[in-house]
Amino acid sequence: MQRSRSVLPRLQSSLHSVRSSAFSTTSLRLQESSHPKDEPKTHFGFKSIPESLKESLVGGVFSSVAPSYDVMNDTMSLGIHRLWKDNFVRRLDPGRGKGGMSILDVGGGTGDIAFRLLDHATDVHNDTTTKVMCVDINPDMLREGEKRSLKTRYANTERIKFQVQNAEELTAISDDSVDLYTIAFCIRNCTHIDAVLREAYRVLKPGGVFSCLEFAPAASLPGPLPLLYRQHLFKVIPLMGELVAGDRASYQYLSESIERFPMPDDFSRKIEEAGFNLAGRGWEPQTFGISYIHTGVKV
Question: How confident is the model at residue 37 (pLDDT cuts 50, 70, 90)?
Fold first, then answer.
C-alpha cells in the first residue's frame, strides 16, 4: 500500500490529461470522425471504434497503470493473481531437462512473469543459462520492468532483455527460434488476436509451447457466480481504481475487456486454427474459472 500512495500524486498530475482525453465519449467521437467511415471496427471495452484507434487507446491505459501495476493486478484479482502466476510458471516448469531455453514473454513489460520463469529455472533446476526476452508494445511498461530487474540477481546479465515489440508483428524475433512463448493478461487487449497467435506459431520452434494466462468472461463461472463476478467487475473494480490509483476510466476499460474476451472453448479453437495442437482440453481453469491457462504445442 505504501507503493500505491507514493505514486498517486505523480499519476494524478501527469496522467490526468491521458485519462480525460483518451477515454471520454466526446473525445472518442472526435477521433472516430477523422477516420474513414468504412474502416473496419473493433472493440475498446464495450465501445466500437475504428481498428486503427485501439492501439493508442490501449497504450494510454497501460501508460496510466504502469507505475501502479501491482496495485492494478491486486485490485483486479483481489491479490490472487500472484498465485495464478506462480501456478502458470510451475506448470511450464522452465529449465527442466536440457537447460538453456529461449523464452519469449509477450506483453510482459514489467517482468512479472519473466522473473518468475528465471527464478524457477535457476532455483528448481539449477539452470543458469535459460534466457527470457521480455517484449511489450508499451515503453512505459518496459521501463518499469527494467527498473525492477536492477533489484534482481539478473541485473546487468544476458539472462533477461527488454524490447519494444508489437505482439501482432514480432519483427525482431526470427522464425523457429523460441522454445517457450508466454503471454499473461495481455492478449485480450490486442486488436487482432488471430494475428498474435499466428506470430506465436511462427517464432516457436517445432515442439515449442505456447502458454497464455488470461481472464475469462463472467459467463464461464459456474452457478450463481457470474452475477456476483459482474458486480465485482463493473462496480467494485472501477471504484477501487478511482480510490487507489485515481484512475476509474482505465479500470473500467480493463473490466469491459474481460467480458469481451472469447469463452475458453472459443479461444482454444482460435489456438488450433493458428496451427497448434492443444494440450489436453487446451485450457485449465483457475479459481472457479476467473482466469484460465491456455496451452498449445507447435508441431
Answer: low
The alpha carbon of residue 264 and the mean position of all alpha carbons in its chain are separated, in whole angstroms, by 16
In which residue are the cell numbers 536492477 written?
150
Percent of the chain with pLDDT over 90: 65
- Output DSSP code: residue 169: B
- 3-class secondary structure, 164: strand
Q: What is the pLDDT of residue 266?
A: 97
Instruction: Please say if the pLDDT value at position 19 is more than 80.
Output: no
| d(C-alpha 178, C-alpha 104), whole Å | 7
201/274 Cα distance (integer angstroms): 7
For CA atoms 25, 254, 20, 107, the dihedral sign is negative
Per-residue cell: 91: 506448470
In this structure, how many other beta carbons lie within 10 angstroms of the beta carbon of residue 228? Answer: 12
Report the SS3 class of residue 157: coil
3-state helix, strand, coil in the chain (%, to 5): 55, 20, 25
Could you tell me if 251 and 237 are in contact, meaning their C-beta atoms sit under 8 angstroms apart? yes
Least Cα distance to 49 among 70, 69, 33, 67 occurs for: 33
3-state secondary structure (DSSP) of residue 64: helix
- Cα separation, 290 vs 234, whole angstroms: 15
All three cell numbers of 230: 459482474
Residue 153 cell numbers, joined: 540477481
| Residues paired with residue 234 on neighbouring β-strands, in sequence order | none
Confidence of residue 92 (pLDDT cuts 50, 70, 90): very high
User: Which three cell numbers mark 167?
Assistant: 505482439
To the nearest 10°, the Cα dihedral for 80, 86, 88, 94?
170
pLDDT at 22 over 50: no
Residue 249 in grid coordinates? 476510466
pTM of this structure: 0.85
